[in-house]
Amino acid sequence: MPIVNQENILSILNSFNPWWQTGLVPKGYLKTFKRSGYYTCKKKMGSDIRRIVVMSGARRTGKTTIMYQIISDLLEDGVKPQNILFFTFDHPVIRVAGMDQILSIYKNNISDDEQFYMFVDEVQFDKDWTHYLKMAYDMNPEMRAVATGSASAAVESDVRESGAGRWTVIKIPTLSFYEYCEIKGIQKNASCENVFGLHLLSRQEQTQLIMGLSDLQIHLMRYLQLGGFPELVKTEDTAYAQTLIREDVMDRAIKHDLPQIYEIRSVDELEKVFVYLCYNSSSIINIEAMCKEFEGVSRPTVEKYIRYLSDANLINISPQLNIKGKKVLKAKNKIYISDSGIRSAVVLDADIYTKPEELGYALETTVFKHVKDYFTAENKLYEVGYIRDNNGAEIDVAVQYTGKQIQYIEAKMRNNATVKDDNGIVIYGMKDIPGYVISKTATDYGLTDRKNTQLYRIPAFAFLYLMGRQQNQSAINNKAADNQ
Fold this sequence. Notes:
Elements: H1 6-16, H2 19-22, H3 36-45, E1 52-56, H4 63-76, E2 84-88, H5 92-97, H6 99-109, E3 117-121, H7 129-139, E4 144-149, H8 152-161, E5 167-171, H9 177-184, H10 203-213, H11 217-226, H12 238-262, H13 267-279, E6 283-284, H14 287-293, H15 299-311, E7 315-318, E8 334-337, H16 340-346, H17 356-376, E9 382-388, E10 394-401, E11 404-411, H18 424-427, E12 435-439, E13 446-450, E14 453-459, H19 460-483
Parallel strand pairs: 1-4, 1-5, 2-3, 3-4, 11-12, 12-14
Antiparallel strand pairs: 6-8, 7-8, 9-10, 10-11, 13-14
Helix pairs in contact: 1-6, 3-4, 3-19, 9-19, 11-16, 12-16, 17-19
């Protein structure tokens, strides 16, 4: 008896779609808190301009949960349960059958209504997914579709090759610090419309805002240690959490996902490159040094593996940006592990509680992640990277919009750490826009004049919380505006 037959597929689809029998999404599939990605995805899916929405991000970041939340909303809005189809290419039989056969069996046996919703998980494991999804899109003008993929570049490349006009790609990163606090049940009334406008508030307003958030400091340390993986937020077992990150995020991507997508022959080499980057996170990457570290591994191979790791959302690449319009020759990238929890799970002696340098690495990694996620979520014209001149003067995080400087940020996770005059954020500071210096303690905040610029110091817990909250609120407001 063949494995791929109608009876088997219907049995699998019934297990994937319990609402066909109950009319409800099981409570265990849902989370009360809704992330900014949920609002963005729902807005794009319900737009008058019909698009296939693709959520891209690392494993264990909550993409599937967002789909279940949207399915639950559709059921509450009165959509017929049989008109909602969910399946995942993580299942071997689904992979063998392919999207075309799955959809055909669904239409012939479950629902042949013209208007239906299709949710497809882990599409990167079907090499022809864009072809069949595009065909389904063209043949079913009333269909709405959402897909997820754990390999961003592979998914986005497939989308580009299939032609523009049908697709919207949304990045789903690990939790922001604000989202982490919300899931943990820590809620604050303190907010501001623009975190980069805090310096415009009165000293009294700044004090009230920052002191109202000061008890988040201890939660930030835990967040920096375990990272932003939703299912690990409430665990107290650090060893278990780090094992889960290594096995379900790192090993799954390196030993299963990437080799299957790119036909990688030497998984050991790929893993060595990743571990090397974990130990050198937040550093300017030296490809020559890496090649010497791994005897017999060529420069093109190392560069290829770095692209693959970025594709799997295990690392973030911070490009060296132009300085005031001057193009940088032989620019070198910085590499950050995409989430501080991943690095902690690999570098087990990276104790942020006792080692200030480890705390600094974790903070800079997290600041870059928050700034990048915020600025590039809705507008790809923003570029987030770093600045470094020929004399070594550097700015940790810089934001540019079509080549124009927008914001400079420096991470200083030491008590009352000074910013010297030869620091890049002072040398290249903008006259009208203060550079932001991320500080450690709750009392280390405020605006100071420095040469031809100003610096605004703000505690890390306040900066990260407010930035995450601002991104979440922006997504809610954009959706609400669309519904008016």
